[in-house]
Model the fold of this input.
Amino acid sequence: MNYIGYIIKEHRCNLGINRKELSENICSEKYVYLVEKGERTPSAELVKIFGDRLGVDLFDYYQYLDCIDPIAVRDYINLFNMYHRKSDYKALKKVTDDAFKLSDFHNEPWNLEVKLNSLSYIVFVENKYKEAIEIVNKLLNEIKPKYSNNMIVANFYILLSTCYQLTGDLENAKCVLSLAYEISRDKYKVEKYEQIITSIRISKISFHYLNGEYDDVVKEGIELLKYQSEFNSYERIHYTYFYLAFAYYKTGVNGESTEWFKKGIYSLMHDYKPMDVYYIAMQDIFDVLAFDAMVDMKLITEFKKIYNLN
Done:
């Protein structure tokens, strides 16, 4: 098992400061030495003080202390999350292949991150939905019980629900989405889980839309916007805008539909996300709203040019 002293030492050395400089007005230099050797465990207060001096949140490393290289694992996990947020699955595959060179990513639970990334590439780049369904179901059956309520498992359920939705199997899509919700339902107010909670709710909105439950799309969409505002987050907000636009159009509320559609367009003009646009443009109402008389055609023309849409 690793220890927090290792993390402290690595960051101290990276900053080029010695133990005396780190310990000044905090503790003795010898105490820092013992902490770094793993012979002393600093209190939570000292961990915070050391972290402030080093300019890093040391508490963020506690979940990685069993790793051989906890700093590298944490850095890679942050990169994984960033590329998932950007829907940049080609870049995700590249960094995942690099991460797999570390032995830590060959062991549970970190190897599950690698498998999730590989499956995301199969789904969103190669469009092999049925193959992914088979692989994910097999993987879920093999996951050890102690990891069954891990949030990474919720991510597998979300990916599986997406595949079922894309293949028209809405019954199974609903089933696995409910399993993702069960894992996450007590974590809604935890900021670190905002990304996955948002993904679950977007998948739920998508399901309602495909199932013709347009009032539920509106209800869930508005609730998601409120949820994200609590965290000052705009994570994949364009999906919510577009599904609100589609649902309002389906229910005959054309004015609201147009306004949400324009918000979605503006959002994606600001933040380039071709993979997201590919799936949004697949919806039956997208082209209808794109030619709506209330939408600025110059804007739509520019949008289609940027995203290479015919």
Notes: The longest helix spans residues 70-86. The CA atoms of residues 11 and 74 lie 13 Å apart.
